[in-house]
Every structure is written in structure tokens, then in C-alpha cells.
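Trying the structure run again after the queue cleared.
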Amino acid sequence: MGDASADRAIGSFLAPIRVGDRRSGVVAAVTRSGVAVTLDGFAARPLGAVGPLDVSWQRRVADAAVVGQRVTAEVLSVDLEEGRVRLSMAATENPELWAFLERLRAGQRLAGTVASIESFGVFVVLDEGPDHPVFPGVGFITYPELSWRRIEAVSEVVEVGQRVCCEFLRFDMWNGEARLSLRATRPDPFLRFAEGVAVGRRLTGPVTKVLPFGVLVQVAEGVEGSVHRSELSAGPVEAPEDVVRVGEEITVVVTDLDRERRRLSLSLRAAN
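Done. C-alpha cells:
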């Protein structure tokens, strides 16, 4: 079969496959990068690819798959251009968990208990649904989704054992977890602030952080705006800390307000 006809054959085979389908086949190769699977119905070459994190959450790749083994896996994505189907054997290894996560819908409220606080986020044991085979909880909150305001420590918002109600964002198929947002269940202070502020308005607040490009200023509870280095002074500024310091109260002028991106641009030199 020529390249063109082979590509057409692959495209025809992959076209009806959808995310969430279950496909069976035979393991053709096992490497550090994962498992290649020859799918039933297309013997010409392996079109199924199982990444190392999708082979098993509880066993090593070498222990979970061997060449010649028949497997059934769930479709995570279909790449028609590459002629490849990304599969998850971990999904079929944990059917109860996968079925629970697939039933969740964006915006749904889920209650649970904070199980663990890690350097990369917070795990939550959900009241409903099964346990996770590897992680402390099925629910997971990244740091930006904890609060609308900038926080220095997670303890400012949650602690282990605390009850929380979060909004479901999405099903993380890589880790088999429910990505959650705690801040989504609370009013966005920026939007409330933006209703009464326009370009040209003078505001006063403390400098909260000095960065290479400028400084951040708290202009309302939970709302910070940025002053670019070029807006700190009428003259050239080599370093923002030469003009202002953290904790210093300054008066600034609003130069731009982007509600969609939640960005507030300020100018110190315009206020002076």
C-alpha cells in the first residue's frame, strides 16, 4: 500500500473513534515512553499509544504490559494528522473512578475535606465518589484557584481537615482527578471593584511587591494593580526600588482596566 493510500486507510479507521470510547488490541511494544498498541480492526501498524502515566497508576509500565498482551483502554484523544490514538489503560484499571469523573460537569459544586497540602496544590477527599488509588484525594485545587487575592501561604485560605465546597473545572485525564476551584464559589472582588472605577480615577494604596518590570499596588481588598517601571517617574528608572518600597502608601492613576483579563494598569507619574 502506498503512502497516500495508507494515510487514507488510517484516516478512515480513526475517523469514527471518539474520546471516551473503549478500544481493544494487542501490545506491540513496551518502552520507557509508554506502550504501542495494535488496535483491533487495523493490523497494518500500531495506532494506539499509551503514555507512561496512562499505563497504570499503581504498577510500573514493565509490570503492567508485555508484548502480545491483549488490553482494553479508553480513548483520550484522536490525532488524525499524526495517525494516532492516545489511550489510557489506567482508566479501565479503575473503572469506578473514571466513570465518576466522566459524570461531572463544569460548574458543578462538590463538597469535601482537605486531605493534603503540597507544594503544587491541595488534595481534597470528595464526599461523593471513590477514593483515588494513588493520591490523597480525587479532588485537586491548584494554588491560583484557592483565592482571588494573592496569598503568601496556603494556610491563609485552607488547612488539612477543613471542609470546603468547590466548583468543578475539568476532568484531568493525566492524573485521574477532578480539578477544582475554591475561589469560583466566592465573589470576584476585581469585577465588583471594576464596576465603580474608570480610566483616570485616582487611587491610593500600599505597594505590595517590587518586581523587575515595576510594582504591584493594592487598591482595594483583594485587588492589585501594576505600575510599569516607565510609569513610576517622569525620568528614567533603573530599578523600581529606587522610587518606591514595599509597604509605602502611594497615589496612582488608572490608565487601563481590562475586565476580561482582570488586569489593572496604574501610573504613579500621572498622579504626580
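The chain has a mean pLDDT of 92. Worth checking whether this holds up in the mutant runs.
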